[in-house]
Specification:
The structure is a single chain. The chain is an alpha/beta fold. The protein has a single domain, classed as NADP-dependent oxidoreductase domain (TIM Barrel, Alpha-Beta Barrel), CATH 3.20.20. Helix content is 38%, strand content 12%. The chain is built from 14 helices and ten strands. The strands form two sheets. It has an eight-stranded parallel beta barrel with strand order 3-4-5-6-7-8-9-10, surrounded by five helices. The protein has a two-stranded antiparallel sheet with strand order 1-2.
Length: 344
């Protein structure tokens, strides 16, 4: 395992992190005991960075059960304040901060997370949304900093809602925060252009998520793959015709096995190539996949030439939120897909 310092803190975290969204059932049903074992397995193998959220159903609670069983050094726990409201468009267009994070919600959420996790301290507390229209100061930041002053949280950050990671740059350069969570993978490497280097310059930790593009970059997807109704990936992989997605993944197979032991390892090695990426999180609630992810860190890093080739020739940027939250876009996408099928 490789480690890095988490931004302005003196805490050392594993560069492969445990993404606990799956513990909340986002990727289909699973056995809770298996989820607990997966956390313990991650910790036993030297991992120590775990990212969860109040928004992830029972994820914090299950993680808390695992932490109760863990007898080693306490891991670095990052979680997120659950945004208020039922209007899902808040994930893709700005909403007023007063609506999304009303006064006192941050404290209430933090106290709830502490109870669910069974801990008295959270290493990193993030807003699950941030838009630059909220500015770089305000009651929402004051509430986070007050919790930090009280010793209930160790650092503060924001999780960017979609692929527009550069929206966080004013906040990063203000010096007000300690971390940014953002989307970064082979298909969408845009954060490497500006956000990651500027975070590095300002000593702000970068938590990279969606590093496997919800698993698609592992090569598991086929025309026959089925998802449960509640599985997040059911709509994610309907964004484009499946054959089109598979063609883009197949274009990466030329790098296997010479430059990586598998497609999943290639994806992780790509994200971790830049030293400005503090940790890369992926879902590890299924043990066999978790082990492969952790093994990626032991392979030689990608050469500069291969990294550049992948970064420039294999980017394929889509915004899943168009399909997920805009019904009119769904209709338009279906019409476009039907037209494409006519032409092939």
């Amino acid at each position: 395992m490789q480690y890095s310092t988490f931004g302005k803190t003196n805490k050392t975290v594993s560069r492969i992190g445990y993404g606990a969204m799956g513990l909340g059932g986002a990727f289909g049903t699973f056995d809770e005991n298996e989820g607990i074992r997966s956390v313990l397995n991650f910790l036993e193998k030297g991992g120590n960075f775990i990212d969860t959220a109040r928004h992830y159903g029972e994820s914090e609670t299950i993680l808390g059960k695992a932490l109760k069983q863990w007898k080693g050094e306490a891991p670095f726990i990052a979680t997120k304040i659950q945004s208020h409201g039922t209007d899902n468009t808040r994930w893709c267009i700005p909403s007023p901060v007063e609506t999304t994070f009303p006064k006192h919600l941050i404290r209430e959420n933090t106290e709830d997370s502490l109870r669910r996790l069974g801990v008295d301290f959270i290493d990193n507390m993030q807003l699950h949304l941030y838009y630059p229209t909220w500015g770089v100061s305000g009651y929402w930041l004051d509430e986070l900093l007050q919790l930090k002053e009280e010793g209930k949280i160790g650092s503060v950050g924001v999780s960017m809602p979609d692929h527009r990671a550069d929206l966080c740059l004013p906040l990063v350069m203000s010096g007000a925060i300690d971390s940014v969570q953002l989307i970064l993978n082979i298909f969408d490497p845009l954060a490497l252009d500006c956000v990651v280097p500027i975070c590095q310059q300002n000593n702000v930790a970068v938590i990279a998520r969606c590093v496997l593009d919800e698993g698609g970059l592992s090569g598991f997807l086929t025309e026959e793959t089925q998802f449960e109704e509640q599985d997040f990936r059911k709509t994610f992989f309907e964004e484009v015709p499946r054959w089109m997605y598979m063609e883009h993944v197949d274009g990466l197979r030329q790098f296997i096995p010479q430059h990586a032991g598998s497609l999943a390892k290639l994806a992780l090695k790509f994200v971790l190539k830049h030293q400005g990426v503090t940790t890369a999180i992926s879902s590890m609630h299924i043990e066999k996949y978790a082990q492969e992810n952790m093994d990626a860190i032991n392979e030689p890093e990608l050469s500069d030439e291969i990294f550049y080739e992948i970064r420039t020739k294999h980017r394929w940027i889509r915004n899943l939120y168009h399909r997920k939250y805009w019904s009119d876009m769904n209709d338009l996408d279906r019409a476009n897909e039907a037209e494409i099928k006519k032409q092939i």
